[in-house]
Fold each of these.
Amino acid sequence: MTKSEVLRVENLKKYFPVKKGLATLISSRKMEYVRAVDDVSFSVPGGKNLGFVGESGCGKTTMGRAILRLVEPTSGKIYCEGTDVTSLNKKQLKSQRRKMQMIFQDPHGSLNPRRTVSEILRQTVRIHELASSKAEEDSMIKDTLEEVGLAPAEEFGKRYPILLSGGQRQRVGVARVLILRPKLVVADEPISMLDVSVRIGVLELLLRMRDEFGISLVYITHDLATARYICDRIAIMYLGKVVEIGPTEVIYSKPIHPYTRALISAVPVPDPTVKMEEIPIKGYVPVSVTDAFSSCRFYPRCLYAEEKCGKEEPSLVEVEPDHYVACFRAKERSLRA
Amino acid sequence: MALLEVRNLKIYYFTREGVVKAVDGISFSVSEDETLGLIGESGCGKTTAVFSILRFVVPPGRIVGGEIIFEGRDIIPLSDEEMRLLRGEGIAMVFQGAQNALNPVMTVGKQISEVILEHESITKEEAWERAKSQLELVGIGSERVNSYPHEFSGGMKQRVMVAIATACNPRLLIMDEPVTGLDVIVQRQLLALTNSLREKMRLPIIFITHDLSVIAETCDNVAVMYAGKIVEKGDTVSLYKDPLHPYSKGLIGSYPSVRGEKKELKSIPGAPPRLINPPVGCRFYPRCPYAMDICEIEEPELKNVGDNRLVACHLIK
């Protein structure tokens, strides 16, 4: 592990057992599992943002939660600044969580409605024992509220979440994280529930976390357009696996994996003069996948599949510096691109 | 004459806290070969406005003024029975969230033929055949006619909703956030379906969404709503290229794209106003970077500035 890495994830797996009736339990048939995250490895350098993009059900949320051990990984290793997060006990995990935090999707559901904004933040300060006196607590809360754009802090601190707009609530969500000065933040669709006109404000705030405080962000989203604005690198997930990962502009300008290409060509463009293209994909996302793959998982939907793709699963291969693709035809496709 | 003409429509909600002016004097029209997009943020009144076209306004909401003229007659004074006949046959709607709009214990074939039987005097068998051809039309295939909604994915359920809405050959289709919550690939497939339906059936559509790019791909004309008002209206291409109202400018300027150069995004400061006590003058005044003294006192009118472009702003003379 290199020193500049904030997060390194190795062979992370999360399988959920499929609950069956009593009959299957007694008949000792093999348990079935949904492979939500199926052998994912990546790393995040300090002060860089990594975006995880995929359709619903691809496992991106489970992966984000597994990084913080909000769900226990089935197997695999997670290192945060060199500490093996997977081996920590409960007490150690609590102090580790000061370094690794999460911003949730729903700004309405993730704030306690019966506490004022400053009480919400004070709770965080107390849990992690950040301040030695009440005056210090107060000044930390005030500074953080101003940092996230909730000024005047005295006034916003007194309000209950119900009196805040969606954008302001999400700023409280950011403040709660920022007050800890963590190294890594996992943000799961942080702006998808906000109004269009306030989204960019929150995105800018997330960018400032990286630029001013050196916080690395793992940004989980289905929205390729906003990911482009705040991520240095992008990972594309399909059915529990990363199929392509690389620098953002490279992924957007010359995607190599057939799935990435389909995904990007499907994103609507806010320009009425651009004509809709045919998406290079067939079929639908399978409803649930419980079997292990003996072929490329994109094989049934791929327009470029060869015989080999149906027999073996490709792993991530570096096609150019820092750009990895899991496709047998990656080399030849990258030449054509 | 326009197929649908909405004139100075006002819909207020009479709540305990006060009167919410959800839709406050909007006018627009849809012609027989037009796709109109209504765009705005949540709470701007776009859904309330189009729900009223089907007279789906429930207490504490009330249509307090204006006219909704469909094919030459005002539908506001129509009786409930007349309105029931008009829905589906005259004006049909695809609702947001298809997952919740379908009956989970009825096959999709039954759900489609039920609508047809309600409006036309044909036999059950004929209706069943029509249901099958509707499923073909939306790209699902007639062999799925006996399936239940839970056997479909989200995108396919939304296709079933389109099949139901178009089953009686309506003269106007309203789609309320039809692709919100769907994955991008499914979303694109549904938009392509909408466009092909429009061509095949020559069906005028009103599209409601908060997503600028969805409008860009489907609509000829677009109306931008803000806080219960239409602030700008025009054809999609020129409005996107050269928005005149500061709010449209802000909305378009804050919208990211995956294509082309990465442009600088600018956010609009503040948040939309509460509609119980909206600002007296221009409703966008508190957030507007170009606000002048007059904007605080006097509400700008929606004026025609040529080329079919309407703008409500004191800046535009």
Amino acid sequence: MDWTALWLSVRLATATTAVLLALGIPLAYWIVFSPRRWKFLVEAIVAVPLVLPPTVLGFYVLIAIGPLSPVGRAYTRIAGHGLPFTFEGLLIASVLYSMPFAVQPFSAEFASVDRRLLEASWSLGVSRIATFARVVLPLSVRGLVTGIVLSFAHTLGEFGVVLMVGGNLPGVTRTVSISIYDAVQALDYRSASQTSLLLLIVSFVILASTYSLQRSVWIKPRH
Amino acid sequence: MSVDVAPGSILVLFGPSGAGKTTVLRQIAGLDRPDAGTIRFGEHTWFDSAAGIWQPPQHRRIGLVFQEPALFPHLSVEENVRYGVRYASDRRRTRVGPLSEIATMLGVDPIEKRSARRLSGGEARRVALARALAPGPQLLLLDEPFAALDAPTRTRLRHDVRALLHRLGTRAVLVTHDRTEAMAMGDEMAVMIDGRVRQVGPIADAFSHPSDAAVAASLGVEAVLPARVTASSGGLLTVAVAQMELHVAEREPTPPGTDVYACIRAEDVTIERASHPRASARNHLPARVVAIAHEGPIDRVTLDCGFKLDALITRQSREELELAPGAEVIAAIKATSVHLVPRA
């Protein structure tokens, strides 16, 4: 089994999930509570990776962070090297790719908090942001856990985006699914089957725990 | 509309469902924004469409209690009660006095560690009231807060809330469509019909002298007289109204000394020329006819018997009794026709 690739995937999934937690909560908050009419456009953009082929997403990310784009040039000036085929480039692509898996459970849970609780809090002199922190977030634990688990699992298994943006550099961008592909190409079915089975089990355990959460097997319902 | 509400008193916003009472309350709270107009409280302007002023609910220093308690389910009773307190200034906190006093008067243990979601309906309302009052609001807004409770709990809570508001000197606006609740708790009343305030005034006035037919229909047509129970014996209460005494059948135990509203429907008032010593009606009040209004085949006779009282009689009766303004008559009311609403 390709432990290096597995370890890389775990690191990538962890970093992606952490970034998505930091970005996804404010974004979901804005989607749920903003009075702007055009917020449906933002919702659609967030959801695009659900339907777009990963290679297409990867292609655009590659162009966007490549040496010909302003972003890519600025990064090269600061970091001394380009973004494509690096862990950082992979991280950017993964964040975009897994965005809906974090933002959608977050916003669904925020939206389901009883509005009267928010109004009670505002009337008690508590600001909107503080109300969000003291009432909405604690009541959204299930949605937050679901979003975290799903984005972790989704990043762990990504293939097309990584191939386009990261290529196949051992220890840097060769993630576990690419390693499986390589093993099959090299007719190393033994290694491929071991790694595949591991991914299958991990995915199943993650999804089973998520669904048990949805059914409130472990966390008590709100009311 | 503009209403003067004394410290510690309650303004009732009364009207049928769909009259717009809750909308007005939400606009006072700052949860909904009116299209145009102004909202002022004392010297504070909370909303002025012309001047572009809008105060968010956080800046209005209000307390808000909904029909549902809307407690924070992830917090304990204590955390719920204290939720808004740290946002109140120190000066306000001392003015209100210790939070534990408010909680105790509402029968809430201020250091209760139990989760808010484990409370019964009545307990949850008490905690919701304590939570709203703890930061020392200048105005308490109540949106049918007792509607979903059983009758004994509701009666006790009405009493406790009135006593507490009086003690704190906090003014309140109570939205209700329940006339008993309006009478039990209100001091002033604004009657709303179809989104408009049709009448504003002291509660007994509004009930006894509706400004128009729509208000009368929504309130129910009857005299509402401020009164006090003076004696009780054998299931019969003696009630002082103005300088007169009424005998009233005791439906619920009401101890002497209780302030009540005595409600008498005009249909239940009979007019006699001379007292019939053997009639079954317990109350025979000397009265003078003030006015007679014709309402189709029925005449509405307004009597002055120390207080104003309307009687509905047929035209034939009016003619037989030869009634005219100024005539001296006897108003007869059965003890079972007087309905008492104790003040909470």
Amino acid sequence: MTLWHIVLLASIACVAIKLAGYAIPASWLENPATARTADLLTVALLAALIAVQTLGTGQQLVVDARVPALAVAGLLYWLRAPFLVVVIAAAAVAAVLRLWTGMA
Amino acid sequence: MTAEPRAARSPLQVATRQGVAVGVATAAYGVSFGALAVAAGLDVWQACVLSLVMFTGGSQFALVGVLASGGAAAGSTAIASAVLLGVRNAAYGMRMKPVVGVSGWWRTVAAAWVTIDESTAVALAQDDPEARKRGFWVTGIIVYVGWNLTTLLGALIGDLMGDTRAYGLDAAAAAAFLGLIWPRLRSHQTIAVASAAAVIAAALTPVVAPGVPVIAAAVVAVVFGLTNWLGAPRRKASLS
């Protein structure tokens, strides 16, 4: 698959899911187990992405400047800082650590 | 600020104001998506197509996140991550169908296209049926236009940056995901699911192909979802 195939396939699939929501009967989600699983799916995938994004480098686990950056991000969200401020702050922490301490 | 009394605002005006506020705030972080997409190896056009067509932030960040670690070889797992994260939009669609009350296929397609976290949230925050409809469309349209403009801007900036690690963009990606999950971490169940998923994904990273750890972590959601482990004993599991 080329990057274009990946981009187009994933995009079309996500639009199809949205359309399906308007096409399938509402009773499908009335089952609490189904509704709960759909909800928790989002949480599980995002958490997994955070772990891989923070510790993964290819197939290796690495502790580098991303870890303190994520810790700062967590602290800022806890202090109710806006999304964009937190994302920029996290990038700045990692960038400064790499520049000044030579951290990977 | 004018001394406009609160009571003078109609429910429609309130919905419009909320939609504009949420729309502008959300659209602003399209810049980070555009820059991260380019850092992951996509070109500016591919980043823009994702925002124009896929148009659901979590899935977009997930796709470029997996591509960043595994490249095009991780294509199928990248697609699967994006699709699984998009499943909640189907749930939103079912919820929004009676709210939007659309008739005609092109309006339904337009409504489905802009059915995302933000448009659903603003619509459901209103009490009046007309205000719900207004909130949905105002938020959806402003986020759509803004998100696409800022994606283009971010992609162009990312293109000029060169080595994006030097600017900490890889850390920005993790921070962005943390922001998306943060409002949902309000119950023991969601915190347990998030922790277990993160541990499983990290543990699997050295042993399986890039992208697979994220998909594998979805099993945690299925187990907790079906058993309602650590969930509220009765009624709905959580308000997240």
